[in-house]
Structure formats: structure tokens, C-alpha cells
Amino acid sequence: MHTRIRGDPGVQAHPLDADVRAELGRILSSELFSRSDRLTAFLRFIVERTLSGDGVLKEQVLGIELYGKGPDFDAAVDPIVRVDARRLRDKLREYYVSAAGDPIVISVPKGSYTPIFEAHAEVAWPMAPQGPASPPPLPAIVAASPRWSHASIVRAVGAAGLLAMAAALFLFGVPRALRSTVPAMRILTVTSFPGAESAPSLSPDGNFVAFLWSGPVSTGMADLWIKAVDGDALRRLTDTPLFNETWAAWSPDGQQIAFSRRAGARAAGIFVVSPLGGPERKVSDAFGTSPAWTADSRSLWWGTGRPRARRFFSRMCRPARAGN
User: Fold this and answer.
1) Backbone angles phi, psi at 59, to 5 degrees
2) Which of 42, 120, 131, 219 is least buried, going by the fewest C-beta atoms within 10 A?
């Protein structure tokens, strides 16, 4: 056995490799994972490599062997492995919310790419205590009865009281129970850099924020940056000392970030760029404010002109997907 196992007292300590692979099959065939080829490939790769006894998996290995990056792959510049690992952890947690009865749990600890396999013990639910037999149900009240006895009236009032109590428990107890499961809201300080920061745009998965920053010594010229919401990872997407980026908008599919640019008081255009960096692509030469994506992430809307006389334009940003 080469698998990494974490067990608790009373829990089976060493699930078989065949059981782990069966659990992997259940996860990958779920609707949650069937929609994501990249996370499916990620999970299958790290599970099979761990089962084969390859030891601790490194970010460099994943970048080269899983993503096909070259030998010069630099994880500090290209965070694709860390980004997908975080998405995978979130997906696994979401999967096990509805699959708590699975015999094996596969998880990826934070800060590691080597999965852990845990075996669930069967839960033996305690038998209900044996007590006196429950009283027989109250007899139904027949509307056709010509007369009601005193005992019938008492039983009817008792039944009405039980119904009222049940309704009160439902109206007040259930919402309170539901409210107690909602996690408390947290307020995070995502960026706190010296200089001017503006126009934040959250990634669709909530893990990163795109924003404009003029640098520690503000020159009035802001560049586009990305930072992890709950971490220190920081990436610069533009470096234009003579231009000023003025807006940022993350596409709904998470693949592009749109931004507008000025050269002093003149428009320099609207651009899109990958969150992973790389070359920019100009969408329009127009002066645009507040670019916004359509729901399919194919087109951009933006406004131009003064607020009271503002006109709106749109432009296709990418070709239609095959089959559409």
C-alpha cells in the first residue's frame, strides 16, 4: 500500500486501492464534476499518482506533466496549479455535502497536492428506548354524529391544541433551525497597499479580485493587478507607465478581464486580457466607461459620453463556441 491514510479511532484505517478508485469513479461521474474536464483530469492525475506510490506531488510536476507546460514552467509567474487546486478543494467539499454516505472520502489538504483517503465506518444508529406503548390515535370526529358527548368534545379540543402546537413549531422552529446553519458573514481586507486602489472586480469563483493600483508612489497612472482574496498571491497584468487603466470587469466564465485605458484625457481603448497574463487584445478604440460582460462571456457592453447623454455600445469579444 502506498496510499496516504488518515483515520480516527474506530474507523477503518486502510482503504484498499480498489475502493479508492471506486470512490474516484463516483466523484467523477457526478453532475458536479462532469461539467469540468480540467478538474476531472486534475483529480484523476493526483489520485492515480498517489496510489502508484510517487510520493509527495509538487506544483512543478503538475504544471509540466498535467498541464503540458515546458521545463521552464515557473509556478511563481503562472498560478494555474494553485488556482485549480483551490477550485478542486471547493468542489470536493460541495460534492460530499450531498454524498456524506460514501464509504471513502477523498480530500486535498490546503498547501498540498497529494490527496488523502479516509474510510468511513458504518454508523450504527441507536435503537429507540423501549418505553410504554404509545396511546392509540384519537378517534376521528364524524360530522354526521347527531350529538357530541363530553368526552368527544375534550378529544376534539385536544386534537386542535396539538395541531396548533405543531403549526407553531413549524413556523418558529424550522426557520430558526435553518438560520442557525447559515455561516456568519466575514469581512476580509483583501488589499491594503500604499497608493490608490480602485475598481475591484471579483472572479466568478470568489477566490481572486482584479483591481487597479497606482503603485506605492502614486503617479496617477494605474495598472491592472490580481490578488488572491484569502492569500498573498499577487500578479501584475499591465505595465503601462504612460497610460492609465480606469476600469476592470471579470468575465462570467473567469477566462478574461476587460479594462479601459486612457492616455491623459484621451481614450486609448477597451482591452481584454487573460487572468494568467499574456498579450492584451484591443476590443475598441472608443472611450468606454464601465465595461460589462454579457452572460455568455462573448460580448462586452460599455457606455460613452456624459452621464445625461450616454450612449451604449457592444462588441463581440470571442467567436461563438462550436455547436452554438
Assistant:
1) -60, -35
2) 131
